[in-house]
């Protein structure tokens, strides 16, 4: 199965923070990635779309080293992940933050304790500094200070997302992986979350890889979009490139009934 060349766009060379080449991933007889190529550039918010079950989460998990690949290469921060020592791998892991679809906070721990988990695992900090850093992260994601001592069960869906985001920022990552961050949020909450991610990108210089089905996020938060289909990238570029594509799935996704419900000025859907 042929794949697009290593660089697809005519833009000047940019700093590739993650480079995926000829990636093949499968489970038993089922091949999910069929020679996929993708670059994630430093400082961008890349939206990753595609039909359900095509492998968006699998790609994320493969990059993160949670799913083994059959072949191909993955370079993270310019280094091939194959052959990395465990120590190096752990150093790399400190440079990314992950927000899984369900938020995945530990239910028995308070927000503060959740945020401090990665810090305790990777850093050697005093309790005073741990508290100070957790307080900072809580403020960064727009939660009130009293959220620190709450359990996840005491939080709304939007607050859980923010708390999980705060935890993913615990180690001051360079890149954030967000798996459907606005799913389950009402349109206003989703819009606020997108704004927060865009602000964090600006202020912290973050790179963001965001798996999403949320058209509004693609319009309002993403600098670039990559679309997955049949185990490969079928299109990538700014929203205009998606709108101009004549690929059948992209046409129905970006020009279908739901897409037409978007307020032209970039407002969110009337209904989620
Ligand atoms: N651990 C696994 N074992 C076997 N098959 C798996 C495993 N993980 C994922 N798959 C399969 O890989 C395919 C891609 O799944 P994935 O969750 O990545 O899709 P997706 O594009 O993220 O879907 P959605 O948009 O619905 O979240 C699916 O057919 C899924 O059943």
From TrEMBL:
SMART domains per record: AAA
Question: Which terms are listed as keywords in the entry?
Answer: ATP-binding, Nucleotide-binding, Transport
Q: Which InterPro entries match?
A: AAA+_ATPase, ABC_transporter-like_ATP-bd, ABC_transporter-like_CS, P-loop_NTPase
**Superkingdom of the source species:** Bacteria
- Identify the residues that the record assigns to the ABC transporter domain, covering every copy: 18-255
Among its keywords, does the record have Glycoprotein?
no
Instruction: Extract one GO molecular function annotation from the record.
Output: ATP hydrolysis activity
Q: Family assignment?
A: Belongs to the ABC transporter superfamily.
Q: What is this protein called?
A: Ribonucleotide transport ATP-binding protein mkl
Which source organism does the UniProt entry give? Methylobacterium bullatum
């Amino acid at each position: 199965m042929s794949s697009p060349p290593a660089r697809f766009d005519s833009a000047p060379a940019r700093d590739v923070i993650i480079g995926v080449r000829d990636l093949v991933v499968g489970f038993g007889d089922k091949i999910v990635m069929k020679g996929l190529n993708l670059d994630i550039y430093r400082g961008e918010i890349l939206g990753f779309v595609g039909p359900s079950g095509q492998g968006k989460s699998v790609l994320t998990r493969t990059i993160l080293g949670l799913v083994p690949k059959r072949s191909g290469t993955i370079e993270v921060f310019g280094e091939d992940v194959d052959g990395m020592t465990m120590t190096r791998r752990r150093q790399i892991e400190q440079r990314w933050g992950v927000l899984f679809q369900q938020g995945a906070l530990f239910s028995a721990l308070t927000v503060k304790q959740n945020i401090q988990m990665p810090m305790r695992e990777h850093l050697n900090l005093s309790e005073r500094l741990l508290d100070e850093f957790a307080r900072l992260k809580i403020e960064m994601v727009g939660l009130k200070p009293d959220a620190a001592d709450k359990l996840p069960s005491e939080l709304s869906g939007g607050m859980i997302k923010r708390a999980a985001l705060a935890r993913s920022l615990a180690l001051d990552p360079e890149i954030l992986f967000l798996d459907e961050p606005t799913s389950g949020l009402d349109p206003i909450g989703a819009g606020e979350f997108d704004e927060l991610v865009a602000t964090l990108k600006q202020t912290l210089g973050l790179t963001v890889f965001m798996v999403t089905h949320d058209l509004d996020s693609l319009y309002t938060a993403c600098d670039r979009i990559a679309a997955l289909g049949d185990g490969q990238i079928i299109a990538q570029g700014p929203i205009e490139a998606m709108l101009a594509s004549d690929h059948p799935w992209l046409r129905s996704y970006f020009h279908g009934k739901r897409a037409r419900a978007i307020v032209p000025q970039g407002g969110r859907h009337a209904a989620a």
